[in-house]
Amino acid sequence: MKKLLLATVALVALGAPALAADLAARPYTKAPPIAAAPIYNWTGFYIGGHIGAAFNNDNTFNGVVTGGNDDARFLGGVQAGFDFQVAPNWVLGAEAQYSWLANNNGAWLFPGGYAYTNDQRGIGSVTGRIGYTWGPALLYVKGGYAFADNRETLLLAGVPTAFTLDGDHKDGWTVGAGLEYMFAQNWSAKAEYQYYDFDRSTFVTPVALAPFGSFRNDVHTVKVGINYRFNFGGGPVVAKY
Fold first, then answer.
1. Residues in CB range of 188: below 8 A, 6 or more apart
2. Which residues of 97-113 are buried (b: 16+ CB within 10 A; e: fewer)?
3. Which 3 state secondary structure label does DSSP give 207?
4. What is the mean predicted confidence (pLDDT) over 159-178?
5. Long-range CB contacts (< 8 A, 24+ apart) of 129-134?
6. Which tens digit of pLDDT belongs to each residue from 78-103?
7. Mean pLDDT score, 149-154
8. Position 128 pLDDT exceeds 50
9. What are 4-33's pLDDT values in tens digits?
């Protein structure tokens, strides 16, 4: 029995390496790639367009003049600018914008047969802006120079009459705020409020209109728009490992 047991142990010892060699090697499995979060880059030039509405304050010239218009007017326009992303959630930029305005924004009838019309056909601005970004979203404020394209007339009994004002109400200032969202490669959409102020004006001549006081020249606007961005590196970008 001892000899049989020893022979069995020796046989198992001799056969074990051969049996191990016959076993298939464990296949190598590559680890799955690590998913990288998109990196949004706001640095670069952009161009785009917008539509919206404009609202003028109602002016009554001391409450004795009829007319004026503070109803909403349609606007549409274009914009272009440059952004630079820093630190890393802040964005600094500059933008030029122009909006065409539909309809006449005001006509007033004065005692004595005078009729004054101010057709503000367009408004524009050149502004700086600063924003805070978290991924695809950018919340910003802006401010700077504003200008207006005004076509004004004064009629007396239906006949054009010369007049002068103490302010040109063509140059002013503007401030605004908005939210922009990068929804696709090189494309972003925005919603924005912007206020334009062109100061107050008073008739100097004809002298018959001077006692009626001044009128305001400010515009409130709301806009939605879209931009195409020539980003340095594009955006969003997925980091590679």
1. 46, 138, 180, 181, 182, 226, 227, 229
2. bbbebeeebbbbebeee
3. helix
4. 92
5. 129/81, 129/92, 129/93, 129/94, 129/95, 130/90, 130/91, 130/92, 130/93, 131/83, 131/90, 131/91, 131/93, 131/180, 132/89, 132/90, 132/91, 133/40, 133/42, 133/85, 133/89, 133/90, 133/91, 134/89
6. 999 999 999 889 999 999 999 999 87
7. 90
8. yes
9. 444 444 444 455 455 445 545 555 566 555
Please report, as a single letter, which amino acid is at residue 53: A
Q: Is 145 exposed, middle or buried (0-12, 13-18, 19+ CB in 10 A)?
A: middle
pLDDT of residue 216: 81
pLDDT at 234 exceeding the cut of 80? no
